[in-house]
Amino acid sequence: MNTHSSEQHSNRSIRAQAADWLAQMQNPDATPDTQDAFEQWRNADIRHALAFEQCRSLWLMTQELKNDADIQRELDSARARKKSRAHNSGWYLFAAAATFLVISIGVFFQLSPKPIEYSTGIAEQRLIQLEDGSSALLNTDSVLQVRFTSNKRELLLKKGEAYFTVAKDKQRPFEVTAAKSSVRAVGTEFNVALLNHKLTLDVTEGIVEFKTKTTADELLTSKVKQGEAINFNADDSKLLIQPANTARISAWKARKIYFSADTLESAITEYNRYTRKKIVILHDELKHQKISGVFNIDDVDAFIFSLEQLLDVRVERHRDNILVMRK
Questions:
Q1: d(CA 173, CA 176)
Q2: Beta 189-195 vs 198-205: how paired, if at all?
Q3: CATH topology (fold) of 116-246
Q4: pLDDT single digits (tens) 196-227
């Protein structure tokens, strides 16, 4: 049995275990020892917790699937088995149906995959552990849709920014789409940001394939390796490989913002992503002043104090915004 087949077998086994635990937790006669055993099983492996949540979600969907012929056959079979196992009472039927639903999850979602949507609010970050062992770290004010099938791992970044750590699976390429661009990987780490109609890709490990279309509907493709980046606007006519901004990415993953000789305008635009009370520059001549440093996302007062000290500007704090002006 090859590695991929072994992983598939392992995942099926975990899904079956999750279905069994869900059934046991629904049994009104479940004992405290059963609860403790369940907690130990769920906490032993992140895949256990994910499989259990998927199982519970599927069970909630049974009302939508009650007319499905395959499920109805399984329920009929479960009822027949129940007659010969009366001591298991009503929850035996639940166990059989839940097991069928979870083991067949791959078939069901291959026929009718429904994307799962994750999001973050302003200043919020969220780590998403995906069912294949990959992960996505969402930055502030971001929306990500995930849809996995037996042969594809599809993700759609609708807005914002995310850092992806991709588990290797040559049978199911990992593809992130944002606007009209896509990033395709097998096992790697990369950052994708969709901000102000510009897409930025930074690769921190491995290699990815980047595809996009221009406004003239011309297809552009490029391999992007570790330490490289692409910044692309829809009106660009070609792809330019640049050094990855790994310092900036490492900073935001640690809830910090990194500036290196950035203009005040771009620095404030970046900081405003993390705060509801927006910072506004009143005088255009201030926009091109340069700023460097590392600032905490959660400490706008320290950032404003640094502006006052480093750039010799005046700041006024109001209820709805913060105004930056010349002295």
A1: 10
A2: antiparallel
A3: Jelly Rolls (2.60.120)
A4: 889 999 999 999 999 998 877 888 999 999 99
